[in-house]
Amino acid sequence: MQILIVFIIFLLLLGYLEFRKKTALEGFLVADRKASAFEIAFSIVATCVGGAATIGVISNMQKYGFAAVWWLFSGAIGLMILAIFIAKILRASRALTFAQVAEIFIDKRARLVSAVIICVAWCAILAAQFSASARILSAFDLNFNSSLLIGGAVIVVYTILGGQRAVIRSDVYQYAIVIAAFLAVLLWLNSNSPQVFENVNFTLKNDAFGYDKIGYYLLVIGASYVIDPMLFSRILSAKDERAAILGTVFGAVAVAISSIMIALIGFGAMSLAADGTSGENLLNVSLFNALPASLGAVLMLGLLAAIISSADTCLITASSIFAHDILRSEDLKIYRIATLGFGAIA
Question: I need a labelling partner for 44 at 20 to 30 A (CA). Which of 97, 170, 265, 304 fits?
C-alpha cells in the first residue's frame, strides 16, 4: 500500500508543478510543442502498451501461443507507417487536435464528424481503462468501488492540472515503471522456472494463427495505429519534425520489444496457473499469487502504470477535441471543465 500511495502522490505533484507554470492553451493541448524524440517515444509506447494490450496479448496466448504478439507487432508496423509517411506532414500542419487535422486536409464537416465520433468512442474506452485500473487497485486490499473512485480521481485531477505536458512527462516515468516491473518478473521466472522459456516456440504463424489472422490484425489493429487521435497528439507535441519522426520510430521499436516481454511473462503465468484459469486472470491472479509479496506489488504497480498511461492520454484527447473542435473554445477553463466532465461520465 505504501508504494501505491507514493505513486499517487507523485502523479498529483507532477500535475501541480505543471499547473503552477500557468500554461497557455497550446501548452495544455500539445505541451507547447517542446517534447523531445525521447519523450515522444516513451509517451507513444506508454500509450500503446496499456492494460488492454497487456492482458489481451496474454489472453490470446492460450489460443495462439507466441503468435499472440501480433496484437502489438501489428501496432508497431502501423507506427512505422505513421513515422515514414505521415509524421512530418502532421507536425508541419501546426494543428492542435486530430479533428483540426481533418479540417486542414479534408474540410470543416470532417472536423465536426471526426470530433463527435472520437468523443463518443473515447468516453467508452476511458470507462474501460478506469475499470481496468480499479481491478488492479483491488489487489492493494481495496474494494472495487473505492478503487474505481481513487483511480479515476487521480487520473482526472493530474490531467486537469497539468494537461498534455503532465501526461507526456508522467508517461516517461510510468513506462520506466512498467519496464522495471516486467524485467523483474522475467528475472524471477528465469531463476525459478527456467524450463518455461526453454520450451517457448518463437513462431509468428501456426495452425491456430494463419495468414488470414495476420492479415486481419494488420488491417484492423495495425491500421488503427496509423490514424489514432492519441498518437497524433504526440506527434503534434514534438518540438520539430525530426523529433516527431524519430520519436515515432523509437516508439514502434519499443512497442515490438514490449510485446515480446509480455509474451514471455505470459508463458510464465500459464505455467503457474491452475487448469481452467481464464486469460484475464493469468497476471493479476495466477502470477500475482505465485510471486513473492514485494515482487507481486511491483508487478501490480507496473500494470497500474501501464493502464494509467493510456487512460490519461485517452482523457485529454477526448476532452480537448470536445472543447476545441465542437465548442470551439479558447478558454482554458472550459478545457479543464470538459476534462472533469469526461472523467465523471466515464
Answer: 265
Q: Do residues 269 and 57 make contact, with C-beta atoms less than 8 angstroms apart?
A: no
DSSP 11-47: HHHHHHHHHTT---HHHHHHGGG-B-HHHHHHHHHHH
Q: What is the pLDDT of residues 32-90, one digit of tens each?
A: 999 999 999 999 999 898 766 787 788 888 889 899 999 999 999 999 999 999 999 99
35 DSSP β-pair partners = 238
Q: Which amino acid is at 263?
A: A
70-81 helix and 241-272 helix, angle to the nearest 10 degrees: 180
Residue 64 neighbours by CB under 8 Å, 6+ apart: 206, 208, 209, 213
| Unique residue bearing C-alpha cell 520506466 | 176
User: What pLDDT score was predicted for residue 294?
Assistant: 86
Bridge partners of 238, per DSSP, are 35
Residue 215 CA to residue 221 CA, distance in Å, equals 10
Query: Pseudo-torsion of CA 331, 128, 307, 338, nearest 10°?
Result: 10
Cell of 117: 465520433
pLDDT of the residue at 51: 67
Q: How many angstroms separate the CA atoms of 272 and 284, rounded?
A: 12
Q: Please give the biggest Cα pair distance in the chain.
A: 59
Distance CA 51, CA 131 (A): 10
Please give the distance of CA 122 from its chain centroid, rounded to a whole number.
Answer: 13
DSSP 203: -
Closest CA relative to residue 90, chosen from 238, 221, 223: 238
Share of the chain above pLDDT 90, in %: 58
Cell 465520433 sits on residue: 117
Radius of gyration of the chain (CA): 20
Instruction: Check residue 47 and give left, alpha or beta (phi > 0: left; psi -120 to 50: alpha).
Output: alpha
Q: What are phi and psi of 35, to 5 degrees?
A: -70, 135
Are 346 and 130 contacting, i.e. CB atoms less than 8 angstroms apart? yes
List CB contacts of 186: < 8 A, sequence separation 6 or more: 261, 264, 265, 268
Chain centroid to CA 188: 25
